[in-house]
Amino acid sequence: MKTPSSRRSADDRGFRLGTGFFALLVVVLVAGIFWELYRTSHLSIAKFGFRFWTGKTWDPVSGEFGAMPFIWGTLYSSLLAMLISTPIALGIAIFLSELSPKPLRTPLAFLTELLAAIPSIVYGLWGVFVLVPLVRKLQVVTPDWMRKIPLFSGPPLGVGMGAAALILAVMVIPFTSSVAREVLKAVPSTQREAAYALGATRWEAIQAALRFGRTGIIGAVILGFGRAVGETMAVTMVIGNNPQVSASLFKPQYTMAAVIANEFTEAADDLYLSALIEIGLVLFVITVIVNAISRLLIWSVTREVRFKAPKAPAAATRTAPKVAA
Amino acid sequence: MKAMRFLLALAFGALLALPAATAQAQTVQINGAGATFPYPIYSKWFSEYNKLHPDVEINYQSIGSGGGIRQLSNQTVFFGASDGPMTDEQLAGAPGPIMHLPTVLGGVVPVYNIPGVDSQLKFTGGVLADIILGKVTKWSDPAIAKLNPGVKLPVTDITVVHRSDGSGTTYIFVDYLSKVSPDFKKTVGVATSVNWPVGVGGKGNEGVAGLVKQTPGSIGYVELIYASQNKIAYGSVQNHDGEFVTASLQSVTTAAAGAARAMPKDFRVSITDAPGKGAYPISSFTWLLFYEKPTDRPKAKIMVDFMKWALTDGQKYCAELGYAPLPREVVALEMEALKRISL
Amino acid sequence: MNRTRRRKALSGLVVLLCGAAVVTALVPLFFVFVYVLQKGFSSLNWDFFTKMPKPVGESGGGMANAMLGTLYLIAIAALIAVPVGVIAGVYLSEYGKKSFASLVRFTADVLNGVPSIVIGIFAYGLAVLPVKHFSALAGGLALGFMMIPIITRTTEELLNLVPGTLREGALALGATRARASFSVMVPAALPGIMTGILVALARIAGETAPLLFTAFNNRYFSTNPFQPISSLTVQIYTYAVSPYDDWHRQAWAGALVLVAMIFVFSVLARVVTRRLERMHRT
Question: Among all residues of chain B, which has the CA nearest to that of C265?
Fold first, then answer.
């Protein structure tokens, strides 16, 4: 006999399974991406194996594909971008969460988030017509003694690692800073109050807060790095698209995302396409690992505050400032 | 709150109504992709053809010859376009026999941007090859100076600009360089996408032209129209008979004269380094690629009709865009070949 | 005494540096905005909004097809992402303590961090290769996948904000959990959910990479979802790397329109958020 309560539990089970199905879709999606990438790149994996990651030659004519130049370009450009952007991003985070007067806070936060709202292609456009000529002028006036250092060797093209690192830095700043702000907000005020009670200056109180949230801050930085690694359009328009491994800021180089964007539609044979997709797979794995580590670090700081009225804007801003690529 | 919800619903509704609002009469859309080399003339042709036949929309995307070949083989587009003929392997890898149909003739020119140099520079194939190989690195190099007495060449580094995508223009250029420089043939070879020893990559003819225009001291290679439309300086090249020829309708047509008399049945022929007085050495046909046994018959019928128009009326648009029209003998052969496409 | 003065000075210096950091970040923002406004505004005219592109070499023409294309693509993306994201968010909010929910949350965050070009490769393998043509649908799919994690997480957070008493009240009156959720909780959280959707829309409207080999590009505007379609972002890219000055002008104009579109979405999202805060404060 269908009692009201048994009918109720059937409905509830239906609800749980129904909504659970959609939740499962999210997991299936991510697993599907990995599976699809792996499947379509197995030709290249089978042929090159580990050599793929260390080979420096990318030669579609002879069918010799080595991804080292792209891996180097991606890591180097992202690292440089983090070096430039992290101090600025942290400075903004500290300013907005600790130092700024209340009325300034919202408009300034809004403005920095606007940086994140500008799509990658617009940054690329600006990069090509404004940043690159600027960088070229800088390169031309570089004194010859500096040119001897490997870091600054190369013809004054404008396009190159330097321009790419700069543009990546600008794009990553709002991202790192908003996550760092979240972390700092999660630090209990008791930490700062204790510092003040002991006679600390503002900076010293901030240091106390930073120390408390340091794992989260590191997480924010790593998250920013992950963002830089995946950036495509702005980078491909200013980096010069030359697969060479070089420490020079002036030389044109190549990143994983850029080579996929440039050569995907033209990969004229299966091995070529498979090699490009394998690069996509490498990119996917790197970003998954980077994201996982950073989320864990951030979560370890913010978890205490989870049950104290999380704010809606927090959720939106945590996931929002991802600049389009 | 209610007002906002209403507005959002309205916006969403408008978005969904978009298809109905913008629906057109029964238009046929045909997708093609490929070479950037003939993009200016193709976009003109498709636009003019659309004016004559408003229900036919031919959507051509210039993604490079390599892309055209790939997408055609994948059958993600209906027709392809390439300035480098498909290799035997590529043809074998396609799901059905593919026909090459030449459309126009064009020339690849060496463009350069050297501040302070206004006159036209002379190049030989050997010097060009050495520049691309990275052996000649400064504009003041004696190899270049010897060819251009009286021109004050600065001691600037040469920046080579090449294609970052798979390109028929590249094919034409390296095909020529491989013919005149055995060293080049050994080191780089001939294909739509090669392993460049030095330089920066630009996407499409447009990308290379753009980079050369913006980079002082650079040299690149583009189809003639991209150089003239963008007022970029380009040099003359020494041809097979030893004279320095500048690319033009005349010199490109002369290069094709010999080929016209001995055209192979599948139209795959290279006319770089052609013998003959006044022939421009870096000339080439460019081809549209079609399946001989297409699955979509109505579209094939339209494209055959288009080809017939392009080979006759369409040729009159060539001159103003810097392309040379096809020799009469070739057009006649193509009209015959079109009959082989099963409709 | 000396040490205190030094510490105070250091503190002051740090405050200054942080302020300088804010200014440094705002400089490129200002730079980019001014440039886009300046270069783009002069090229905006009625033709730009209503005409299709002209063949190479002819000046004039517009980006009407690209603008319509972007709207079409984000509509398809929203159609796919909103149901999946909202319902998944409902699950996370209702059964959030289970370990499966943690897995879902984790993968949503991972998905959020996947580079858009990788999603493009996935959509290519899923929706382009099997049917052998590029399509607006494939492009919309790629964009939709990117929207899902944002919508899921914001829906979950927002539903958690709604007082549990609402749900309990509904259940006490005899409603099923489904009813309680979809007829009571979700409408209560709707403004916030809309925020999440708007934020996600703002993000994907600016995407280029995933469209390069899914939606491809189209010189015309077609309403057929199985045909390639133009989009503002891809068109800007195509024009930007070309050598034609006229196309460069149009690229800037397109960039202005794009930035304006995203700006509108972002501002709407903020307005909705502020309304929400006000509602919950009372």
Answer: B8
- B-chain residues near C242 (CB < 8 A): 204, 206-207, 209-210
Whole-number pLDDT of residue A123: 93
Q: Same structural domain for residues B95 and B111?
A: no
**Does some domain include residue B23?**
no
Q: Write the DSSP string, C64-120.
A: HHHHHHHHHHHHHHHHHHHHHHHHHHHHHHHSTTSHHHHHHHHHHHHHHHS-HHHHH
C234-281, pLDDT tens digit by residue? 999 888 877 677 888 889 999 999 999 998 888 888 888 777 767 665
- For the beta sheet containing B283-291, the strands, ordered from the edge strand earlier in sequence to the opposite edge, are B56-62, B28-34, B79-82, B283-291, B98-113, B218-223, B159-163, B200-202
Nearest in space to B223 (alpha carbons), one of B206, B240, B238: B206
B contacts of A265 (beta carbons < 8 Å): 33, 63-64, 67, 70-71
Domain C49-280 has CATH 1.10.730.10: no
Give residue B201's pLDDT: 81
pTM over 0.80: yes
Q: Looking at CA atoms only, how far is residue B332 from chain A in angstroms?
A: 31
Selecting from C57, C75, C219 the residue whose C-beta is nearest the C-beta of B59 gives C219
d(CA B14, nearest CA chain C) in Å: 10
Question: Is residue B112 predicted with pLDDT exceeding 90?
Answer: yes
| pLDDT on residue C1 | 61
Are C53 and B46 in contact by the 8 Å Cβ rule? The answer is no
Examine residue A176 and state whether it is found in any structural domain, yes or no: yes
Q: Chain C 176-195, CB below 8 Å of chain B: which residues?
A: 190-191, 194
Domain range annotation of chain C = 2-43, 49-280
Beta carbon pairs, B and C, within 8 Å: 97
**ipTM of predicted complex:** 0.87
Q: State how many domains chain B has.
A: 2
The answer to whether C216 touches C49, Cβ cutoff 8 Å, is no
Is A151 a domain residue? yes
- The count of structural domains within chain A is 1
State whether B253 and B320 are in the same domain.
no
Of B44, B57, B206, the CB nearest to C220: B57
Report the pLDDT value the prediction gives residue C42, as an integer from 0 to 100.
84
CATH number of the domain to which A165 belongs: 1.10.3720.10
* Residue A130: burial class (beta carbons within 10 Å; 0-12, 13-18, 19+): middle
- Is B170 inside any structural domain? yes
Q: Which of B195, B208, B213 to mutate to test the interface with A (most CBs of A within 10 A)?
A: B195
Distance of CA A45 to the CA centre of its chain: 26
Which of C158, C255, C273 has its CB closest to that of A125? C255
| Cβ within 8 Å, pair B206-C244 | yes
Contact call for residues B176 and B283 (beta carbons, < 8 A): no
| Any domain includes A21 | no
Q: Does the structure show a pLDDT above 70 at B224?
A: yes
Range of the domain at B170: 107-260
As a whole number of Å, the CA-based R_g of chain C is: 23
Inter-chain Cβ pairs, chain A and chain B, closer than 8 A: 82
Min Cα–Cα distance to chain A from C155, Å? 9
| Contact across the interface for C114 and A260, Cβ inside 8 Å | no
